[in-house]
Specification:
single chain, 104 residues, alpha+beta, Arc Repressor Mutant, subunit A, three-stranded antiparallel beta sheet, 8 strands
Length: 104
């Protein structure tokens, strides 16, 4: 299990929940590509949702708030309407690359 997940930025650092960290990791690994909500849900809970769910949207919204809190643009994560999310290929904040880390 991941612990002490952090998002680094020019304005400091913010702790990430396990779900937020996994979403960031998947989006970062596939930056520039749309990752569907179902794929993110599966990565988080190991199954596809039985019914339409907004739980992934809630975690992405929290991740965006934390991006802003550490000095990055929440626009680093783009919404692909009706599909999912995409991490912008060259996401930066004032020239500073976005970094997040996991400490064990």
């Amino acid at each position: 299990m991941l612990r002490d997940n952090t998002l680094q930025g020019p304005a400091g650092a913010a702790p990430l929940s396990v779900q937020e960290s996994l979403i960031a990791e998947v989006l970062w690994q596939h930056r520039g590509q749309v990752v569907t909500r179902d794929a993110l849900f599966y990565r988080l809970w190991g199954r596809v949702p039985d019914a339409p769910s907004r739980v992934v949207d809630v975690h992405v919204a929290a991740l965006r708030r934390k991006l802003t809190a550490v000095g990055h643009s929440s626009a680093a994560i783009e919404t692909a309407r009706g599909l999912g999310y995409r991490w912008r290929a060259r996401a930066t904040a004032g020239g500073t690359p976005i970094a997040w880390g996991r400490r064990r």
